[in-house]
Write a structure and sequence with these properties.
single chain, alpha/beta, six-stranded parallel β-sheet, 20 helices
Amino acid sequence: MKKQLRIQHITSHLGGGVGRVLLSYLEIAQEKSQFYHSVVSLDYINKNSKSKLKESNISFFEEMSKNYEELIKIISDVDIILIHWWNHPLMYEFLVKYTLPKCRVIIWSHISGLHSPSNFTKPLFRYADKFIFTTPISYEADIIKNLSFKQKQKISVIWSTAGLKHIKDVSFKKHKGFNVGYLGTVDYSKLHKDFLNISAKIDIDDIHFIVCGGDDEKNIRTEAISKGIDNKFEFVGKVDNIKPYLEKFDIFGYPLSLYHFGTCDQVLAEAMGCGIVPVVFDNAMEEYMVQDGKTGIVVKNQLEYKEAIKKLYKNKKFKSKLSKNAKEYAFKTFSLEKMIVEWENTFNDCLTITKTIKKWDGVNKGLNTTPLQIFIESINNFNKLIEYKFTSNLLNSKTKGSLNHYISFFDDEELKKLKIKLNKNKD
């Protein structure tokens, strides 16, 4: 009997947007793929993800950062390693400190790579046998232009999506007031820094903002209270089931930071798939996903954002037209089936590559590499960032590859000293 070829997925943690993409993929791939898939998480796998993995009969391991020796054994026995990558302390520790036995490695980037700390670094492209973008906007990253021809040949794009089948039966529920919904990361690493003020200034009497998601939602809620505008907002935190919220959103207000980490935003696709008209800023990702005046409204500034929401509130015919277009476009464009076919082709192509030992080609002292050195490896052009006093996302966010994120995992004195230095520099 022919041995079934094995794909080992490795992720920093499993839950949230990337989790929905991977779990939706595995649910179908387990039946249709010629490969056997299993999952390793360096940190936690949340309860909902565990249930879905068990339902799909997918084997999994969690908190493997506590048992790298076992992970190395797993890697030596599979055909392809697929790393679901974004800037996460545990993933960079794994890549930088540990030499892998002969293997084939695909890196699938779940961040755009356009801005620090969600940036690409040259060693990533030397490390991978294939490097897959989740969206074509990643080609705009400055570092890509300076790669060698050989390294550029490793790159291709597979649009990341969980599909829209799970929200196909979402239907609008009547409610009081005009609900502007938000789903996703509630943290200024992604959310526009003036989100509260932008929203509160929209002069619609019965407007209400429903904010679903986590990371820093408690602090942002506290900020709303301090501003005396908390009555306009409902912060619900992380939710396992998004359908009840989608059913009561009138529009999707999605003002993101210019320097956010997103690529092909799953919640934006889901909102559009439900016919919930999005209002977004003209950042690279949003402009790529939303056709202004056809499937949503793309704005250039805060005033335009305010006026766009008021227009959708007043002009029901216009809103209805955009809603219909958004739904049709989303189901046509964000196809899980297409993604599965593309991955099958990519895996087959990768099998022609000879397995090689994988060792990080950067600052690498093996197991003696310090947390500070690991953090520096994650940041493209570290000295330039020091000179420009760092971006606020890199310094202030609690997660998303920030300095605080690395400190929370490594509790390292050198990292803490760097934070003190940078806080002094920014004043």
